[in-house]
Specification:
alpha+beta, Beta-clip-like, 2 domains, two-stranded antiparallel ribbon, 5 strands, methyltransferase
């Protein structure tokens, strides 16, 4: 409890230092809040796609839940990896498109975010 209290105090100091009224809907503040309060999530079997990540509490539409972690790769590399994963018998690959040129491959080095359906 003491650690959480110190973190909340630190967040209040940060908000007052940058002026919370100037940036009430800032993505920076939402990201910063994730460090202070982790969402309750559960990993388990999913009817949608083998495995899934389930929220154990209500989460607002604009609230950050978890960062998608993996290797940033180009489309050409993603195409090659997808074929290789199929040849290796890896049933599920976790390739997340960020934009036209960037894909995050969480298949072998990702976190629980790859199981969000």
């Amino acid at each position: 409890n003491r650690v959480l209290s110190e973190r909340r105090s630190e967040q209040r100091r940060l908000l007052s230092a940058i002026g919370a009224t100037a940036l009430p809907d800032s993505d920076l503040l939402k990201l910063n809040q994730l460090k202070f309060r982790k969402k309750r999530l559960r990993f388990g079997r999913s009817r949608i796609h083998e495995w899934g990540l389930f929220a154990m509490e209500p989460i607002a539409a604009d609230e950050m839940v978890i960062e998608y972690v993996g290797q940033n790769i180009r489309q050409v590399v993603a195409d090659m990896r997808e074929k290789r994963y199929a040849q290796e018998g890896i049933g599920s690959s976790y390739l997340f498109r960020v934009d036209h040129d960037t894909i995050i491959d969480a298949t072998k080095c990702g976190n629980l975010a790859r199981f969000i359906n």
